[in-house]
């Protein structure tokens, strides 16, 4: 047993760092490190650089053009790139629909979709939640009816909370193909081209006044039957498979480490009663506690990833990571807001020249502090709320 | 980075699991607990035969030269069985102290006898009213007639009830801590032994002009004291993990079997989610106990201290959460002496309060952020 990196792993870490420094656009890195909003191209530029290097298929098997990295290498990659200010790799294609296609899709779907996910040519979004189906996801109603000749589905209904759907080329959807039996039994998994006539994307403005999520409306959308993944009415199995993959990435350890750095920065810059805030034990202890919790999460993540290597699929332990990871992310963003003090109060927007409209808030770490706090309230709600995660652990781990 | 045990470590783990299952059932523990000594020489010798006493002693000193992970494996099982034999107090802690705080000559023989389980030693360090102070201030050593004598009082000496050899921290003038060896039956040594809340044993020990042998450099014992207490903290974290895993298991089992309102109480979501939160504390503690076990062999003392304090904070909080809630979820039966639940709760509570509580370690970690 050894928690240290081997010389080979250290060398890999150095490689990742020098590659990131050489290929990540410094303007993008600056935005990420300061917590500014990213544009579509900011994500894609980094995605394409990684693709060229063969590093974009993290967690993918080599047979599909993945890196084939083990858990430790994946963790090092996440940690180092996050530290350097790299944007996250949008997970909807790479980490969510791709594993489903690999495991349950047919050859044509693999051949068509996987290379385009890898190259970044197709940006994917997730069509799971509906207005009436949040935690009770399997009650979803969006209807897909086979055309009389069997070649198409006609899709009608609405999806919601579609993250970055405004950028997406494709959406994977859970649709209702049958009302017979238990509600889980009539669900199918469809891949839909966002350019298909009848699809409308409407922004939902969140509490930080940002446009991050959307409603997606489907009005008699004609989808080729060949876009069905696996078997009709078996979609719930694939959906659960995908959700367990989603929970792992959700721990966000690399991202948390970056926020810790920013928090230290703010606590050193901000003055409290004539001394740097970091010297105030009452506040410093809160940072200490968050760092300790984060270290525990990091090692737990590595333990889970290591165990998964044996059985090749995330288990219900991923729910524990999701709960703890989201809680820590919220704590860290809250502390950063607290560190900013009164600087957290103004709602700051950028002028055309990129400068803030409240000029004394020129340090971006302050400027975005409260926005992040508000934005991160989502983390304990999305991906299956933390209460749903506790239900999952209750059933699958505790057997209650 | 890897999380697998070596073949030897797996074998050690299996042996200890068998030992606890066979010789340390709750009834068997009761029998030992009711004896005058409060622990069993037979069990002590069994543990010595397995090699547990030899693990923390270097091969050059006659031991097995085990690493932090080996200690972790042992402590998890001792925690699971709520073992009463004073392993940390009378073996692990003094062995670590002698390894770092005494010269080869000084420790020759003594460490070998500790490794064989033949000699029990204890570390008399805590001064009355000074809580977790690591710098000994209350006990004085003076040079009289060609040798040192000790004056002062040490309290809550783990294993101080039965140790034959005492390692004592004391100051010679304003020199800083020095380490002394005193035979427990020497003239001028008076001890008051007592059981503790968790049925472990300890003692207050008073020194009145007791003759003592200086170990290591005069005034230079602090690094060894810090090291040994850190080793003990790492071990306690692992012991807590073993105890918490078992206590959580017992609690979940109870939720499945205890019925109220005509159905198992585990059908109630309020209790289910509490049990999940307990599991989360257990899993995070496992990770930190592992981190602490690794940190024991860290050469940079500041880095070691930081990691071990982080572990003790997180594990201490878990001890409180898991212990309190195990009692709560058991309801009335949880607050009785007859059920093992309260015994686990008390041990976990005492672990959190030993060698620095959560606040003490949080402060040590937190202050390290200022230096960075």
Characterise this structure.
- The complex is a heterodimer of chains A (400) and B (372).
- With 400 residues, chain A is α+β, with helices and mostly antiparallel strands.
- Chain A is 48% helix and 14% strand.
- Chain A has 3 domains: 7-89, no CATH class; 124-235, Butyryl-CoA Dehydrogenase, subunit A, domain 2, CATH 2.40.110.10; 250-398, Butyryl-CoA Dehydrogenase, subunit A, domain 3 (Up-down Bundle).
- Chain A is globular.
- With 372 residues, chain B is an alpha+beta fold.
- Chain B has 3 domains: 7-116, Butyryl-Coa Dehydrogenase, subunit A, domain 1 (Orthogonal Bundle), CATH 1.10.540; 121-219, Butyryl-CoA Dehydrogenase, subunit A, domain 2, CATH 2.40.110; 223-371, Butyryl-CoA Dehydrogenase, subunit A, domain 3 (Up-down Bundle), CATH 1.20.140.
- Chain B has helices at residues 7-23, 26-33, 41-50, 68-80, 87-101, 104-107, 110-116, 222-257, 269-295, 301-330, 340-352, 358-371; strands at residues 121-124, 140-144, 147-158, 165-171, 177-183, 189-195, 201-215, 259-260, 263-264.
- In chain B, strand 8 and strand 9 form a beta hairpin.
- The model of chain B has no long low-confidence stretch (mean pLDDT 96).
- The A-B interface holds A 1-6, 9, 72, 264, 278-279, 281, 284-285, 287-289, 291-293, 295-300, 302-303, 306-307, 317, 320, 323-324, 387, 390-391, 393-394, 397-400 and B 1-5, 9, 69, 252, 255-256, 264, 266-267, 269, 272-273, 275-277, 279-280, 283-288, 290-291, 294, 310, 313-314, 362-363, 365-367, 369-370.
